[in-house]
Amino acid sequence: MSEWLVSMTGIEKSFAGVHALKGCRFELQAGEVHALVGENGAGKSTMMKILTGVYQLDGGEIAYRGKPVRIASPKEAQRLGISMIHQELNLAPDLTVAQNIFIGREPRRLGGLLLDDKTMNARTEALLRQMNLNIEPTALVSELTVAKQQMVEIVKAISYESQVLIMDEPTAALSDAEIEELFAMIGKLRARGVGIVYISHRMAELKAICDRITVMRDGSYIDTVATKETTVERIIAMMVGRELYHAEGPGSYETDAEVVLAVKGLSRGKTIKNVGFELRKGEILGIAGLIGAGRTEVARAIFGADPVDAGEIYVKGRRVKIASPHQAVAEGIGYLSEDRKRYGCLVDMDIKTNVALASLGRFSRLSWMSDAEIEQAAERAVERLGVKTPSVRQRLGNLSGGNQQKVIIGKWLTEDCDILIFDEPTRGIDIGAKSEIYKLLDGLARQGKSIIMISSELPEILRLSHRILVMCEGRITADLPNQGVTQETIMHYATMREEALLV
Amino acid sequence: MKKAALALESGQNPGNRTFAFKSGFLQQFLAFGSLIALVVVFSLASENFFRFSNIVGILLSTAVIGVLALGATFVIITGGIDLSVGTVMTLSAVMTGVSITFWGTPIWIGLIVGVLTGAACGLVSGYAVSRLKIPPFIATLAMMMVAKGLALVISGTKPVYFTKTPGFSEIALGSVLGDLIPGFDIPNAVLVFFLAAIVGSVVLTRTLVGRYNFAIGSNEEATRLSGVNVNLWKVVIYTITGAFTGIAGILIASRLNSAQPALGQGYELEAIAAVVIGGTSLSGGKGTIVGTVIGALIMSVLTNGLRILSVPQEWQTVVVGIVIFLAVYVDIIRRRKTA
Hints:
The structure holds 2 protein chains of 2 kinds. Chain A is of the alpha/beta class. Chain A is built from 18 helices and 24 strands. Chains A and B meet through helix 10, helix 11 and strand 20 of A and helix 1, helix 2, helix 10 and helix 11 of B.
């Protein structure tokens, strides 16, 4: 096929002297799913922001259906039929599905005076039916699951007759079953001739859904390859341009070391059902399970972030009462949230404040702050964890995801926590930085820290954990030493629903 | 800051420290620059403006609102608001009057009673906001009405006069500086305002509670999940705001040589306006005491200058309103550029 749906060639973009895109290109055919991959900062999102009119290009050309176009604004992009589904969905939660889809162009009656809800709902119904979606047009968006909300966004894009659909990490918040649904939907769009740009860090998905893959690195175009003719290793190698840290599994540890944390009969409503387990010194305990299995809820309950109905917690054999994160930290427990920006750090404040946040009391005498000590501690943490930053006075939000995560780890190390709970430690972190985080976790365990690691990525669980807990619907369905465990075994337990147990 | 982020990820050093310094400097400069510009304009427009007596008058009229605004800065940096500072100021004034005039306590005890009254009201608001999870707007709105009512009840709806203790009015209107340096008759109220600003600035930037203040305003939930006892610190911060309010109450009582129970409502909005003009963000996490001082000065320079130019009172209010619009709009543009 010689005629591209979209072709971007020789794209140049600079921000105040920083050359963000250097002669980049990207071509999309009608009816193909084209992955755009690269580490954070590689220039993927800048490229897509140029295509959707958010940024203006400094040099290069964009052609749409063979004709050169200038995309001056997001509105212009939408008019051409280019839509983007963002990671953070742009829906109004308190409006209905139909109201969201037709927002800003609601059908009217009586000469435009009154809204015509009947027509709007009927047209929404037709759109949803077209896509085989079982969603009520009158349902409130807030009542839908994240996956369903995403479907609504996609239907909204289609209702604008979009020919190009850009999806940014569409599966980040979805369970495996929901990913299946999404892929089925993508299949339908592809059949209709829609060109799809698929941005994701998850290699397995790219192999499953994409026709071609374009790799970017450091603002440059690297290569475009057909998915069938390449391997995951090769794509990763192109992305990082360097050798990756490889290891078959976790390091060894003492299986009879002291039990530092014991949880018994932890319960909370329908989300946590009689959870109990032990964590030993120097151990990495992985918690696997599908989205909604209650893993984060267990972590937050242990940390005192949410109240519980019942349960006992023992730290180093001593029964403790943890009703708030304040008490948990006093017991030497640190928690790294899955949602870094919202719950993990102060993005608008500098690195040193973030490092010192959990231990500010220790950096003050009679309430007088010692900034020199804070700065030293921050510099130690930055050096120990290999944070890439010109200074500890740098605003945290200026760092990449991986470096932000390291700073948060630094916060708990500065507070000298012995028990660390990592909730999705590599979410939103690019592949090169991921392996650094893995090394870090290995190292911490070797130094005698005890780690609970929650992850939705099974290879990550298998790579890091000494022992694996599997959760399903709020219960622990398996407690496995990580020997000969496969992804299939974990999935078996992760889908072991209560009804199945009763039979 | 997007540019800096990109530069960092590609491994270059963009010299970000100077960049951050510049944007902070710009914010201060804008407020300070506007203040200077106003002073210059009014001085050129009327020879009566830049006279020692008029400048002293401006400073004196800034003192009460200024001290209120200093206190309000703390709560606003947490991302909260305190609507009660106007009437709590009145209640503090009344309690000082009750202590000195009705109970016959020495003046210094009356001062302590005034500050403690303000602090106690702040403590209750803080408890309502942090423990009871009542939104700050509502909790302090309730406190505003409670304090207003209590001030009327306790005073029997009549002003409390300090006629038996002539020394009391010296607190605001006397001049310690004038005694030291002949001719330099700056009223004590102004001195109190600047001392309060220095103390406030030190507390905000150099102490534990100040550090938590910014952390809570920047991201309250992340701060809580870092093991910080956020509820406790919020109570402390609202109490600090209350204590400043108590000081403002003493100043206004001393200036009027009486505690006027019906006065006070509306002061909270002027205080908030001063804080906002000074560049403190209502969404929390950002703000300075210097900014608030400048903000308060801008408001009184405007009113004073317009009065000297014989602009009617009604129009003065309109102009102040427009200035608030502009100040916040400039701040929003600045944020949009750096975000």
